[in-house]
Design brief:
Elements lengths: L3 E3 L2 E3 L8 E5 L4 E6 L4 H16 L8 H17 L1 H12 L3 H23 L4 E3 L6 E9 L2 E5 L5 H14 L3 E5 L6 H13 L6 E3 L4 H10 L5 E5 L2 H13 L3 E5 L5 E4 L5 H13 L11 E5 H16 L19 H16 L3 E4 L18 E4 L6 H4 L6 E7 L2 H9 L6 E5 L3 H10 L4 E4 L18 E2 L4 H6 L2 E9 L16
Parallel strand pairs: 7-8, 7-10, 8-9, 10-11, 12-13, 12-17, 13-16, 15-16, 17-18
Antiparallel strand pairs: 1-2, 3-4, 5-6, 6-20, 11-19, 14-15
Helix pairs in contact: 1-7, 2-4, 2-6, 3-4, 3-6, 4-5, 9-10
The structure holds nicotinamide-adenine-dinucleotide.
Length: about 500
Amino acid sequence: MRELYIDGHWSDATTTTGGRAVLNPYDGSTITTVAEAGPDDVDAAVAAARRAFDTGEWPSTSNRDRAAVLRRVADLLVRDRELLARDESVDTGKTLAEGRIDVDDVTGVFRYYASLVETDSGRAVDTGDPNVVSRVVHEPVGVCSLIAPWNYPLLQMCWKLAPALGAGNTTVVKPSELTPLSTVRLVALLAEAGVPAGVVNLVLGAGSVVGAEMVRHPGVDLVSFTGGLATGRRIMAMAAEGVKKVALELGGKNPNVVFADADFDTAVDYALAAGFFHSGQVCSAGARLLVQDEVYEEFVAEFARRAELIRLGNGLRDETECGPLVSAEHRAKVERYIERTIAEGARLVTGGTRPDEPELADGYFLRPTVFADCTAEMTAVREEVFGPVVTVERFTDEAEAVALANDTDYGLAGAVWTGDASRAQRVAGALRHGTVWINDFHPYVPQAEWGGFGNSGVGRELGPSGLDEYREAKHIYQNINPAPMRWFSGARKEA
Ligand code: NAD
């Protein structure tokens, strides 16, 4: 096992745990066993990143040359698209088609940040004083710990790595212990693209051990984390001790608001994708459906009917539309939410159980589940279930729809479906969420910021703000005609 990558070398972990088995959630089989790092490995990785930052060439490499490396990474992602998509499918259970979309997405992200970095030359400031030259330049923050979740292992890591590298930082990266495969391949690809030794260091292992050490370590300047709310809170508290910069992309409880004047068929179709794409294990999943009175019953019935038709199976097969949940533990957690939602009085319209098909028996599958007649107080409406479970609430008018959609501790994303363009803009303006889709759900682009209001996080990924997370702004002010100031009388030179 040589899956740790520290200071330009592949190595085994210093721990003697025997590694960690990586399971295929489709059938519970072991794909491989990977190294399990310990605190000493993190220490070595941070030391390598520290050296590469303090004495290496990467932070002072020209923007143009760093952009060229990012573009080479993008080219290699294109070359290895199928391998990466396959890693993602067997590791997370998602379909190969979804894996390919993820690789295409991150290829675009590397290219976008290459262009952004290449065209950045700081900003001249007009101070109003002709004797002053003033400009604001950007510099890398330092050593960045990048910690990613299991639902989008490659995508979430690249949303961090592309801007972090583009800005000239050095990094220690850790994928989720459940899904390390694509990150191991990515790191090899970064080295091939010309990222110097020590600039990207890979450690694998448990969040509570390896991840926590990546946050606590005094050699780390910035922590960027994508994952659950509880972990995010812990990380923010740990990082406070060293006054580290923190970027957090946490969960969501995302309202999908359907007005009666929306195109019925399209709204149902997108509501399915919003709720059940990747078995609902998406931070921006439209797991909270709000439907207007006039079409409520008809919508629930049609939505549930089509949810029953979703084909579950092996993500590697073309006919599969939805894979399993990521692990047995995670499925058990989702099942507890289902039991609780029934106990709290919601109407189970479909799903709620494991599928009967014998070939799915060893995998961590759950049938797409629809709860109707839900209320804003129910646990599954307030908390992130992160599974194939959609709760449906009813509303009467625009004001109630907005109030319900904003009645959440989260604020990552939301959507509004309506045929009324004015209402669409009004509602989009009123929603307290980081992304709002009108008559659509799920698209994001590298050029536009991604992140959350409220408990959905701190900071933004993607877009220009996604680069700024990894840069310090420095103001350089030059007096080009210095002469004595004579502010203090004692400073006057006696004649
Ligand atoms: P998680 O919080 O359990 O783990 C995420 C990562 O943090 C993993 O690599 C894990 O090993 C590590 N970790 C765990 N404990 C840690 C600790 N104490 N210190 C440092 N690192 C630690 O999350 P998950 O279950 O892997 O992912 C699902 C969550 O991620 C969901 O809540 C989802 O909404 C969120 N997510 C958010 C976004 C977004 O863009 N906002 C995107 C994807 C996923």
